[in-house]
Amino acid sequence: MSPETRRGREDNESMVQLAGLTKRFGRNTALDGVSLTIGPGEVFGYLGPNGAGKTTTIRLLMGMLRPTSGTASVLGFDAWRQSREVHRLVGYVPGEPALYDRLTGNQHVAYCSHLRHRDDRRRAAGVADRLELDLDRPARTLSRGNRQKLAVVLAVMSQPRLLVLDEPTSGIDPLVQQTFHSILREHTAGGGSALFSSHVLGEVERVADRIGVVRAGQLVAVERLQDLAARSLHRVRARFAVEVSAAEFGGVPGVRDLLVDGHTLSCNAPQSALDALLKLVSAREVEDFECSEAPLEETFLSYYGMDGQPGQTPPAAAGTVARTAAGHAH
Ligand SMILES: Nc1ncnc2c1ncn2[C@@H]1O[C@H](COP(=O)(O)OP(=O)(O)OP(=O)(O)O)[C@@H](O)[C@H]1O
């Protein structure tokens, strides 16, 4: 066993490791010192506006580009120097799937099985069935969405350890997206990981465990989706049978924009404040009550901005974030 192969097998704590990963094209720095680890069983949503550096990161991880500095590795195998080992571990869905126009889906499946020295035709047929993809049609006759589906079939059929997905569901209708999410969950339940790039949170929101935001080549934030959801704002409205005062509700930490007017109360509250607030509300006679959550995308935008501009508030300042998010929620 070569020293490099040995290193690959030993360093198996993380599925993906990016360390100071930098790529320059001439004077243009496409990626600037990105460091990131993705663990087994984890779906990592990699978000950023157009031109932020997502595809460059993925190409570096797939060994298609050589880093200017830093490293990218999969299960300890260096993506550039050990790309063959990496390709055995990874299923890749590019943004624009490269297919052979004249070959049918089944012929693509047979060809990829041949390249990998394994017969994955049964599994491919099962996944295609679930995605409602006809494998008998030549690639040139497939719509954009069906080309994406075929790329997904080819990526998952060999049950790789890591899936690298570059905006894989653009062009796929919402019902099929749900099926795709189920396939992804089955993959992670078996210990597999995924790097899932997108320019919108909505595309990764239901499946990502963590999200990272890349902007102008730099990783500006990494956050658990659960933590982001916990900070998302809820609009609370209540009408009471009796008159109430602001002082009765003002003490709940995190509650903001509190407005009490005779029998009515309105405010914005993060999830962490809801229990205490509802207990205070329900201690009075309630005639009407309403609580609705702002879409996560709005909370997210107020933190990080996805239009290439920085968000309005630093992520750590949860209280301040809540106020900004409220501005977006209305
Ligand atoms: N081969 C290349 N030669 C020169 N510049 C490049 C090359 N590939 C990417 N870039 C530049 O690197 C930057 C990052 O591009 P990249 O394609 O990684 O962004 P992205 O986040 O994937 O965007 P999109 O969502 O539009 O695909 C951009 O400024 C882009 O113009």
From TrEMBL:
Compositionally biased residues, Low complexity: 316-330
Alphabetized InterPro entries for the sequence: AAA+_ATPase, ABC_transporter-like_ATP-bd, ABC_transporter_ATP-binding, P-loop_NTPase
Pfam families: ABC_tran (PF00005)
Location (main, coarse): membrane
Keyword Ligase included in the entry's annotation: no
GO terms of molecular function: ATP binding
Domain of life: Bacteria
Keyword annotations of the record: Antibiotic resistance, ATP-binding, Nucleotide-binding, Transport
Locations listed in the record: Cell membrane
Annotated ABC transporter domain residues: 16-241
Region described as Disordered: 311-330
Membrane topology: Peripheral membrane protein
Family: Belongs to the ABC transporter superfamily.
Protein name: ABC-2 type transport system ATP-binding protein
